[in-house]
Amino acid sequence: MTKIIDCSMGEGGGSIVRISIALAALTNISLKLINIRAKRSNPGLRAQHLEAINAIQQLSGMSVEGARIGSQTVYIEEGFKPKDDALVNIKTAGSISLVSQAVLYYSFIQKRNIKLKIEGGATHGKWAPSIEYMENVTHAILKLMNKKIYTEHRKFGFFPKGGAEITIKYDKHENPLPLILSERGELEEIRGYSTASMSLKSRKVAERQLDSFIKKANPHVEVTPIIKYVDSISPGSGLTIVSQYSNGSKKGNFVPGEKHLSAERVGEICSTKWKKMEKGTGAIDVHAADQLIVPMALVEDNSEITADEISNHTRTNIELIQKFFQKTITIKKETNHYSLVIKDL
């Protein structure tokens, strides 16, 4: 029997495609996706969605029909010849973090090691987490669930040309643990990952971004600077701030550099986001909640988190998860955060 997912549900974005294909491959079911990104001004599949499908197809052996730019309908049949590695090529500045998200979900409870190599794409792009956020927030929190992920950077990519080269290794998951992060704890450390292309080194763009953040945010704990200049095919930069708390939780935010933004303005925008994040008493930030909801649903035992916010994106993902698994997912609004609990029915 083929499961049909209407991708116009809820927020209607590309995450519905990424999650659906990963869970269909993981559970070995046939799937039909309809109305893909139908609410967007440029509806249908884009390059990064195609490469996410491509990666899962390589790893699971599933057959796919209709996967092309602009397509709003895709058919997927279960696969029988899984592989342990995949290679994808993003010819745009599509987000590496978002493409790899599908593989993260597919690999999460696998009893085998999986490797994903991505050529092209952006490590620091618009509307997506940076590579530093992915490594130091998402992947770091997943270690609490006993999932280990390793990233190797060969090249970095910025908007508009991309051109990155990244390898991500997902260890087999022998003993998946539930995620319990209900208390934020005290702020212990802030790390500032300020990255820029080598062409911007003479202007000290990376240093200026982070200095501006520190000046505007004026945090009460010291900021550990991680300044990096990297080779890339187009100039660009990004600033990622990661806060670590006494109970092991982490929160972060990212601002990409843009042509019309000075390095100082990037730091200022990042400080505004950080101050808002610090006012929230959730153990994780709004973006991590969005990314962690699927891994939480894949483990057998109950998981519980608190998050600064629960976005429409996350609510859509919850609705989608319940189409694949029998889970009770409860959201409760507290004073300065939301609590979220996932239980088996």
Describe this protein's structure.
It contains eight helices and 16 strands. It has 345 residues and is α/β, with parallel strands linked by helices. It folds into three domains: 2-176, Alpha-beta prism (UDP-n-acetylglucosamine1-carboxyvinyl-transferase, Chain); 178-184 and 280-345, Translation Initiation Factor IF3 (2-Layer Sandwich), CATH 3.30.110; 185-275, RNA 3'-terminal phosphate cyclase, insert domain (Dihydrodipicolinate Reductase, domain 2), CATH 3.30.360.20. The strands form four sheets. The protein has a four-stranded mixed beta sheet with strand order 1-2-4-3, covered by helices on one side. A four-stranded mixed beta sheet has the order 5-6-8-7, with helices on one face. A hairpin with an 8-residue loop joins strand 3 (63-65) and strand 4. Helix 1 packs parallel to helix 2 (47-60) and helix 7 runs parallel beside helix 8 (312-324). The protein starts with a strand and ends with a strand. The mean pLDDT is 95.
Which SSEs are present, and which pair or pack?
Blueprint: E1 2-6, H1 15-27, E2 30-34, H2 47-60, E3 63-65, E4 74-77, E5 85-95, H3 96-107, E6 114-122, H4 131-142, E7 149-155, E8 165-170, E9 180-181, E10 187-197, H5 205-217, E11 223-230, E12 237-245, E13 250-256, H6 263-279, H7 286-298, E14 303-307, H8 312-324, E15 327-333, E16 338-344
Parallel strand pairs: 1-2, 5-6, 9-14, 10-11
Antiparallel strand pairs: 2-4, 3-4, 6-8, 7-8, 10-12, 12-13, 14-16, 15-16
Helix pairs in contact: 1-2, 1-3, 1-8, 2-3, 5-6, 7-8
